[in-house]
Amino acid sequence: MGCLFILILPYFLLVSYLFEMTITLIMDKAQKIKKDISEDRQEARGKRQEVVRYV
Questions:
Q1: CA distance 52 to 33
Q2: φ, ψ for residue 54, nearest 5 deg
């Protein structure tokens, strides 16, 4: 039984590491998208204020 555990442990660690890296990459991508959206909103607000000034 101990031998089976020793054989399975590296695969379990590899899968858990890959899962963790996948989650990390997804979270980084989501933060980048969120940052881009907030920058776009700020840019749109600035353009709206410029239009109001000219009117």
A1: 29
A2: -75, -20
Higher pLDDT, 7 or 20: 20
3-state secondary structure the chain: CHHHHHHHHHHHHHHHHHHHHHHHHHHHHHHHHHHHHHHHHHHHHHHHHHHHHHC
Q: Which tokens hold the place of 15? A: 């899968």
> Where does the pLDDT of residue 50 fall: very low under 50, low under 70, confident under 90, or very high at 90 and above?
low
Domain of 25?
A: 1-55
Residue type, 52: V
The amino acid present at 34, given as its one-letter code, is K
Q: pLDDT at position 6, please?
A: 86
Our count of domains for the chain comes to 1
